[in-house]
Amino acid sequence: MLKIGVLDLQGSVSEHINMLEKLDNVCPMRVKYPDEIKDIDGLIVPGGESTAIGKLLVDFKIKDILIDRIHNGMPIWGTCAGMILLANKIDMEETTHLKVMNITVRRNAYGRQLDSFTTEEVIPEISSTKIPLVFIRAPFILDIGDTVKPLCIVNNNIVAARQDNILVTSFHPELTDDSSVHKYFIEMIN
Ligand SMILES: NC(=O)CC[C@H](N)C(=O)O
What we know:
By secondary structure, this protein is an alpha/beta fold. The protein contains six helices and twelve strands.
């Protein structure tokens, strides 16, 4: 069984846990303490409020342990606010974040009027059929480094990408019935 953590500080934690419970060979667990972070095979950083999660990473004394585990190859997937926390740079802002992926992101990039929307795309690396993409006050990627592979582009903006053991999506697969991205993440661990 693979122990897959969902970072349980703030945001859509139970939705990811529910999704993981449907997959074979996966033991989902909520994690927030240093010993728990040391014990998992992979971690999902959920959507929520990146400024709040960033502060709590420090309060719970797990920021440095997490950075260390990611540098040592632990697979990690950030959805929405999770993407923001993993980025090296946040456009025009400086909040506490992990700075482990060679991307620049813009928070709330779709503006207020388009705060939330849903679309469908084929993401060839992940699924041969269209999957639903739910965006909620979502970021997108403004810039990527050489080591980063864009996986999905919507309206000319990169909304999913991978750099080795790090996966990010602007959208929320845990709020849909489609488990393709969760399965893809589990395959990154196997
Ligand atoms: N759904 C989300 O995770 C929204 C992210 C949020 N707007 C932020 O900037 O942190």
